[in-house]
Amino acid sequence: MSSKFFTRNISRNSAFWTKKLTIQSPMIAEHEALAREPIQGNLTMFAFDALADTRQLNEKKLHQIQVLAWGVELLQTYYNIGDDIEDNAKTRSGKPCWHQLPGVGLMAINDADLIRSFIYEMIRNNIEEPIAYTVQNYFNETYFALNIGQLMDISLTRSKDFTQFTMEQYDLLNYFKSAFYTVKLPILLALSLCNLHSKEAYTHVDKVCSDLGILLQMQNDVMDYVDSNSASIKTSSDIQNRKCCWPAVALLENCNDIQRKEFELCYGQSEPDKVERVRRLYKEIDIIKIYRQHEQRRYDAMMEQIKQLPVNSIPSKDFFIKILNVLRNYTEDISPTKS
User: Would you say the pTM of this structure is higher than 0.90?
Assistant: First the structure.
């Protein structure tokens, strides 16, 4: 997907937006969206390819799925900008966060809102009704889910009660914060463009893909521990910010009393020696081994959910297995060199 896509579509917007968007949106897209691996955008394209009838594979439909794929990537850009401001993050994807750039600062909030508005403009100018109405509703539902997830994330971060750091709470947090936009939204958009969306299809996607989205977040959290300087993630700050991240929750479920006391004293502190002590605690309980075991249990559970789907379900069992296999290649790689 080329950044020229943005410039080409900006010219179709109303005069009110044209001047600002022509200057600002490509800059943000180049800095944020094009700096990371477009996992969600590629998943949108992959899902469409797997679902579409061959008669739908014309130039117009291919352009429309590109619009939706870029919409998903821009949604992540919108979310990342706000998330980085709230976490006071310094870098993402190996570059300074957008709000850290000279002359940007808290104007990044407006820039994020601009990106959100631009997503709507892209849909309005490239997708016809009634499909446009459906996909816009899915985007709106995703914004709502993200806001709930952010509220939960901030509340847990501010809490000093580590009894709330449970797998049940972690799953609920990331059902809203991660699962919807990382996996469910791309598939729901592809279903809509193929005119296959329905309440039943939505239920099947929600049932199978929520766990897969949570697993992707688990992998991201573990990468924060494996390589805090990886260019694929933002500056490691989960420990300092007292995040309800997967390694922290897993440690609290697998540590002894002495380790728990050390964790509670050090977690959420910014002093380098305390941060390092938490990382050593992760190593002591062999967090990578625990992750692998948890990962396998989740995949087994998802396969069981797929088996329980109706024979003629939409999406089909084969479709979900394809999605599972594509994303498993991603979640299995927790090496420091992943980019």
Answer: no
